[in-house]
Specification:
about 300 residues, alpha+beta, Jelly Rolls, 11 strands, binds flavin-adenine dinucleotide
């Protein structure tokens, strides 16, 4: 909890609009009995709302956080701010966000190490050349750019962070499914190929799977316009729909027949066995659909 109604609340904006933050945020004090505004969730949204309310002089505000500040998506993201969106309002919001990030250290007194550079995936796809997959195999059309497979070998900090994020989830997933304990977990060595796709209107990626790997994954950087470019998994039980009636037409989970389509969300990671056939349906939106994909195979350290 961040108390906002202390007797001496230093976080209010003064007449000049400048804000003076409290030297330290007390998160252990008792909850007030009543407040004018209670914000649930201490992620970037909740904290930003509280901050801007304080700037406007509203001081009877608490932020209620069930765990610790930024324990949700706000503490896990890649920290990217980009401005190429398909709607004007999103572009304007992001332009404002860039300005906000530029001023953040001055306004708030916290260095967020804001740096401006190109958007890595788009810059590399525009550059082509060494970034391009030299031996494309799966059917696709020119609206899909596929990078080479060394993406996670790049020393770019953002890519190393993304790799760490993917591996953390993959290892947990693999250990849960195999019933591995911490000792086994620490012996797992991951080998991998990783690449990215930038898909523009009309782009599709044909049916394929990934031989010589055990687990594969797709991380969604940006789905572009939602509702198209669906990541589609073919049901491996090919004969499961040979006879459908009321008793089996609505089976769920592992017994379901038909395909499984995923309308990817930003930041979503989809893990699947590499043998499962999948494709990407045509992307019909504006802007770019950007995904990172990887194949993994494992060894035990002393095997
Ligand atoms: C892996 C990943 C990468 C991302 N990369 C980017 C990026 O590069 N650029 C970008 O702009 N965005 C990115 N995002 C998205 C961005 O992080 C989120 O949109 C943003 O952080 C959402 O903020 P929030 O405050 O709405 O939610 P959260 O940060 O999830 O905060 C919600 C908070 O509410 C708390 N809470 C929930 N229920 C209760 C309750 N009942 N009582 C009290 N507290 C509660 C939770 O503990 C949590 O702390 C990424 C997201 C992920 C997961």
């Amino acid at each position: 909890m961040i108390p906002g109604n202390e007797d001496e609340d230093e976080s209010r904006a003064d007449a000049s609009g400048e804000i003076r933050l409290p030297a330290a945020v007390d998160s252990t004090g008792p909850l007030p009995e009543r407040v004018e505004i209670a914000i649930v969730g201490g992620g970037v949204m909740g904290l930003a709302i509280a901050y801007y309310l304080a700037r406007r002089g509203l001081d009877d505000v608490v932020v209620l956080e069930r765990g610790y500040l930024a324990e949700g998506a706000s503490g896990r993201n890649g920290g990217g701010v980009r401005q190429q969106w398909s709607t004007e309002i999103n572009i304007r919001l992001m332009q404002e966000s860039v300005e906000l990030c530029r001023r953040f250290a001055v306004d708030v007194g916290v260095n967020v190490w804001f740096r401006q550079g190109g958007y890595l995936f788009l810059a590399r796809s525009a550059e082509g050349g060494e970034h391009t997959n030299p031996r494309p195999l799966t059917q696709r059309n020119p609206q899909v750019f596929e990078s080479n497979f060394g993406l996670f070998r790049s020393s770019e900090r953002c890519l190393q962070q993304l790799k760490e994020f993917c591996w953390r989830h993959l290892i947990k997933f693999v250990c849960d499914l195999n019933g591995y304990d911490d000792a086994m977990r620490s012996r797992l060595l991951i080998y991998s190929d990783a690449w990215f796709h930038v898909t523009r209107r009309g782009g599709f990626f044909g049916l394929h799977n990934h031989p010589n790997a055990s687990w594969s994954g797709v991380y969604c950087v940006d789905p572009g316009q939602r509702g198209s470019g669906l990541l589609t998994f073919l049901n491996p039980m090919l004969a499961s729909s040979m006879y459908l009636d009321a008793a089996n037409a609505s089976l769920r989970g592992a017994f379901a027949s038909g395909v499984r389509q995923i309308d990817l969300e930003p930041g979503q990671l989809v893990l699947f066995p590499s043998w499962v056939l999948h494709d990407v349906k045509p992307y019909e939106g504006d802007g770019e659909r950007i995904t990172v994909a990887f194949n993994c195979w494992f060894q035990l350290t002393d095997a």
